[in-house]
Prior knowledge:
The protein is of the alpha/beta class. It folds into 2 domains: 31-184, Nitrogenase molybdenum iron protein domain (Rossmann fold, 3-Layer(aba) Sandwich), CATH 3.40.50; 189-306, Rossmann fold (3-Layer(aba) Sandwich). It contains 11 helices and 8 strands. The chain has a 4-stranded parallel beta sheet, with helices on one face. The chain is globular, with a radius of gyration of 25 Å. The N and C termini lie far apart (92 Å).
Amino acid sequence: xxxxxxxxxxxxxxxxxxxxxxxxxxxxxxxxxxxxxxxxxxxxxxxxxxxxxxxxxxxxxxxxxxxxxxxxxxxxxxxxxxxxxxxxxxxxxxxxxxxxxxxxxxxxxxxxxxxxxxxxxxxxxxxxxxxxxxxxxxxxxxxxxxxxxxxxxxxxxxxxxxxxxxxxxxxxxxxxxxxxxxxxxxxxxxxxxxxxxxxxxxxxxxxxxxxxxxxxxxxxxxxxxxxxxxxxxxxxxxxxxxxxxxxxxxxxxxxxxxxxxxxxxxxxxxxxxxxxxxxxxxxxxxxxxxxxxxxxxxxxxxxxxxx
Length: 307
């Protein structure tokens, strides 16, 4: 009996020393995923879906204009080491094809805007012949709901064990986006409809205008990219349109050279507002440290200048 008891004890000890099975090993374990989002605002959106399970890195530094971004060898190395790359898509990251070619390797590429349809210019808006659509979907928070769903599904495919976490985080963040939409709607009501006239640096606020009842009067640079330059005729036409409509302000993104806008303002009597954050969030102590705060900051700037 003593021998049988001793053998039973040895078997129990040996069993306790064996490695845990796959299910037990996965409990509480975070995946070794390296996830990169192209832009800072996109990294913030994705981080809200990932929560504490995965750290999302931004390819671009804060304050960088994606339209003029030129990847460095360090950026190529980041992409080469990544497992998942999240991009806005819709042609926004014009540098991306070459970057991926240089990086090589295999990774999942998530297009956050997949499934969204580009807006059509309204009557009187300038059509950019070099860009078929407008990729600035995120400037309407309702479109960002689609971003969140795409990111949720992409992260769940890359990390199935975290799917329930991504689902719960996405649901919570979508509720915040819907609240943001209501907040912007209420704030915009402070501007009479006749004054909801937008003149911007380039064609980026179309989705915002469509959602919240603004009219696009014109842009300093008649393109969805900031890399173009207006002709003298285009500037003259913009000046005439501002005079005809009585648009009160010209809105520029931070970091934009205000020289051309200042010239237009001198001719029209409008003011230049330079504190829009459309392509990048700010440092944590800045006015737009998250996507939601970026949208609130932009709304406040627009409303305060036009009401």
